[in-house]
Amino acid sequence: MKDERNLLEVEGLCIHFETNGYDVQAVQDVTFSIKKGEAMGFVGESGCGKSTTSRAIIRLLAKNANIPAGKIIYKDQDVLKMSQDELRKYRGKEVGMIFQEPMTALNPVLTIRTQMYEQFRGKDMSKEEKEKRAIELLRLVGIPSPEKRLDEYIHQFSGGMRQRAMIAIVLAGEPKLLIADEPTTALDVTIQDQIIKLINNLREELDMGVLLITHDLGVISQVCDKVAVMYAGFFVEETDTLTLMAHPMHPYTKGLIDAIPNGMTEELKPIPGNTPSLIDLPNGCPFSPRCFMCEEICTKEIPPMVEVDPGHFSRCHFAERMRGYKGVIDLDEEGKE
Amino acid sequence: MDVLNYVIKRILQMIPVFLIATIIVFALVRAIPGDPARVMLGDRASQEAVDLLRHKMGLDKSIPEQFWIFFKDMLHLDFGTSMKYKLPVGELLISRLACTALLALVTVVFTVIISFILGYVAGMKKGSFIDLIIRFYALFGLSAPSFWIGLVLLDFFALKLKLFPVSGWGETMGQHLKAMVLPALTSAIYVSGILIRNLRSNVIDISKSDYVDFAISKGISPARLSIFHVVRNALIPATTLLSLRVAVMLSGSVVLETVFTLPGLGNLLVNSIYSRDYPVVQGVVMMFVVLVMLINLITDILYSLLDPRVKLQ
Fold first, then answer.
1. pTM for the complete prediction?
2. What CATH topology corresponds to B89-306?
3. Inter-chain contact A93–B219, Cβ cutoff 8 Å?
4. Mean pLDDT for all residues in chain A
5. Contact status, residue A11 vs residue A235, Cβ threshold 8 Å
6. Which positions 289-308 of B are in contact with A (Cβ < 8 Å)?
7. CB nearest to B218's CB, from A92, A108, A153
8. Pairing between strand A234-240 and A226-231?
9. For residue range A273-284, what is the model confidence (pLDDT) as tens digits?
10. Given CB atoms, is B221 within the 8 Å cutoff of chain A?
11. B-chain residues within 8 Å CB-CB of A118?
12. CB-based contact B309 A60, cutoff 8 Å
């Protein structure tokens, strides 16, 4: 039996940044939940608020950020109201975070051992137990000769091994929810694939919830059960991964899917225009200036998040028009179950 | 073993530097206009008396001959006899260096304590009122003349409160240390001004770094975060900066030695130049050469210990 309770619930989350007198609305009205063992993906272009949302979950926002509305509930605990003491027990042990660039995310002057042992602090473990566990973890993530590598520094590792080392350090805290912020972006393609497989295996083996942040729909489809597409701080579409790839119900998602090179069509179809500045969002739907089916209402009213199919949400006035549009996979042929 | 090999290699490299320095020092001292014998005996002395003294001091020999004697004696650690103090130069140097080195040591201790606390606090509380005050202190320390700071401290702590001696450095180690407090503080106020600014900007950069965020995301304690992640990394550039200052401190400070009447190297060198005391000038400068080379070596080794990305080779 699967534990059907939600591990993490985020409700109506808004995050604003104050910079140079501007009120930057980085995240607006974001709602989602992750169950134990479930993998959720955030996809979107840079600056769409996906990293900001994930950092809010672990309370790692810059000092100029404020959260005017919304709730983050982890296992019945209100994360936004946690004391420093509660946060210390929550971070690392309940929710762990893999950063994009292991070279800068690991301390250059501390050994892997030291940085790994930091996760064991407060646990009743002997020196031998710590060492044994550390070696076990390095082996689990596929680092060869872990006994030797334990006392090395991050600059002595190669690109893929660096990311593995960071994953091992995060796992040392035994998090129930793993946030991975662009874990493969800094890696070359073959190593990307290995790291994705590693995250998938770990998730199954350790039954962790996963929140994967990426701009790559391909990565999402390999890891995630469900996915939220973010644009200019908004969730614009949310559903299970297969449905999203087969029947996108938002023009931005369609744009993202069309932009995936598939080897069949001769040229890429980029989405015209650029992401809007968060300081100066267009009126109405933030995607309207780039949208191929924009109409008058789109420039006046922000569309609400509507459930177009059971469990399939889209933030578009004309989501229904998207019905019948085929994505990259054909569900009817493959069969949904 | 690596470190030992490295040290041997570096010491071998010092030999040519030392030789070149010897020639330059010898030549420069003789390039100072004025005849030591004439300076010593005064304008009214007869030419015969001056010639006699020149002969006694070996100044009537040819320059290469003089250099050879100087060089040969130096290899035997014999720097000659001071013309003015009538003491062996080696003895003179050691007694003066003891004072200057102790002053440098106490200064470093004060500087490290003041700078790390203030630099860290200013960096972490960037933009706050306390940051403003610390930055003002740093700027003040950098720009206020040390003779003035020295006199103010002397007036308050030595004359009014009578906590420290007004002049001299006493006989016992305890007295020496007590006498060093005010001059070291004076010097530390200046040096910490330099160091605080460096530490503050490093702490600001580091606290924005990914590895600090990652450490926070692991839920480690604030104390561990500041010591092992922030200060540990801010230490690296600060060490280089401080070691450069140590080299300067070891060459003595005429101002501090004058204000606090300390028997240090700074005054010895200046007075010896005035009186054309060739052996002392040569001895002091050669000692600086060796000290600077040693400090550079120690700094490089320290740097490689602090930063594993730096390899000794």
1. 0.84
2. MetI-like fold (1.10.3720)
3. yes
4. 88
5. no
6. 306-308
7. A92
8. antiparallel
9. 888 888 888 888
10. yes
11. 215, 218, 220, 224, 228
12. no
ipTM: 0.89
Say if residue A1's pLDDT is above 50.
no
Question: What is the residue whose two structure tokens read 């080392």?
Answer: A165
**Distance between first and last Cα of chain B:** 12
Q: Rounded CA gap, A231 and A220, in Å? A: 16
- Nearest-Cα distance to chain B for A154, in Å, is 9
Residue B203 is encoded by which pair of tokens?
């702490």
In which band, very low, low, confident or very high, does the pLDDT at A330 lie, cut at 50, 70 and 90? low
Q: How many CA atoms lie within 13 A of B301 on its CB side?
A: 17
**What does the pLDDT look like over B160-200, one tens digit per residue?**
998 888 888 888 888 888 989 999 999 999 999 999 999 99
Print burial letters for B73-100: b (CB count within 10 Å at least 16), e (below 16): ebeeeebbbbbbbeebbbebbeebbebb
B156/A contact by beta carbon, under 8 A: no
The pLDDT of residue A258 is: 83
CA R_g for chain B: 24
* Residues near B33 by beta carbon (within 8 Å), at least 6 away in sequence: none
**Separation of alpha carbons A39 and A226, rounded Å:** 7
Question: Structural domain boundaries of chain B?
Answer: 89-306
pLDDT tens-digit readout, A300-325: 899 999 999 999 999 999 888 888 77
Nearest beta carbon to residue B218 from set A108, A155, A173: A173
Considering only CB atoms, which chain B residues are within 8 Å of A173?
A: 218-219
The CATH number assigned to the domain with range A6-224 reads 3.40.50.300
Rounded CA separation A103/A101 (Å)? 5
Characterize the bridge pairing of strands A177-181 and A209-214: parallel
How confident is the model at residue B102, as a pLDDT? 93
- Decide: A183 and A194 in contact? Cβ < 8 Å: no
Contact B73/A at CB under 8 A: no
* CB-closest option in A60, A109, A173 to B213: A60
A27: Cβ–Cβ under 8 A, 6 or more apart, which residues?
A13, A14, A15, A49, A52, A53, A56, A233
| Residue pLDDT, tens place only, B206-248 | 999 999 999 999 999 999 999 999 999 999 999 989 999 999 8
- In chain A, where the domains are located: 6-224, 242-334
| Residue A192 DSSP symbol | H
Residue B292 to chain A, least CA–CA distance (Å): 27
In sequence order, the β-bridge partners of residue A27 are A15
What's the confidence (pLDDT) of residue B29? 84
DSSP B130: H
Tokens linked to A132: 């044994």
